[in-house]
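SEQUENCE-TO-STRUCTURE ENTRY
===========================
What this section holds: a protein sequence and its matching fold, both as plain text.
Question of interest: how does this chain fold, as expressed in backbone structure tokens?
***
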Amino acid sequence: MFPSQNIEELKKEFVKKKSMALFLGSGIDMTNTYPEGEKYQLLLQNNDYKLTWDNLLTELVNAASINNEERKALNSFNSNTFKAAFLKQRLGESYIPIIQNWLYTRCNRSVLLKSYEYFRQYQDQSNYLWLKEVPFGTLFAIADIILKQESIRVVFTQNYNNFLSEAIRILLEKNPNNYSGRRNCIPVDVYDGWKEEPFDVNHFLIYHVHGYIPPYYEMIPKKESNHIVLSDEEFYNLSRDVFSWQNVTQLHYLTHYTCIIAGLSLDDMTMLRLLRHARLDRSSEKVYWLRGGEGSDDGRLAIQASYYESQFIHVVNDAQGYASLYHQLMEVAKSY
């Protein structure tokens, strides 16, 4: 089935209230808006706010105070995970606090509260273009869809931050009447396996499968700095431990639930490995991969989509971009 048709198939999944799981990557934290003009300067304090791999590695390189020769040698490697391994070794115990500072100086509750005001002003507009102009608009769009669609049971995220749970809390605090079905929802960031105490019926679980770094007002877990997955060694260890809670829990949902992959590239070997194992035992439920910006007449896209279909992955593409795609899903979530 061609990607544009898969949009309609995914909409039907929402209508049928199928039990769903979301698998999220760093793309949901992105925003197309650069802080140009007074309101964005006030919102985003500095111009280096884009939460990308490259920017994180640049931050770690600067903090490591490596010399020019070391910097050239590091840049010669194509693997970001290898660079992270080198920088982790050099930085030692300051590795995690540096990442924490990088994350939460660029996005935090204060920033998201200001971003929400723009989201609130425009969210009922029929034209999707507003979503491209709202800082962290994609993040709030995902939070909005979760709260309106009780069929979404759980989230798995590769992100280390609490931005999604904070966005959910803000939407509920500011406009609880919009989300009557999940008015009492309590987002819970899970980062170290199953918690010992039973979960409340209102808890909505957000599994941080690559680890979790809390904001400043929470204590960093008292573990070695490898409690996040960023360097090559950490990725290898996670792949090798087939019975880890991350692998077992994700495989369960990939096998038995309708799954939506968003903000995540299928070049990611961790996700491809899990999908390959899951399809061997997959029930009739489907996996949808959201992508945007590829032209509908793009022959390359058709070839890629055909291959992914053979792997039981349904590509949902919107030629007008991610803003249009997420706006469509918000409209469906609101209607059913």
Residues 33-39 have pLDDT under 50 and may be disordered. Residues 109-122 form the longest helix (14 residues). The radius of gyration is 20 Å.
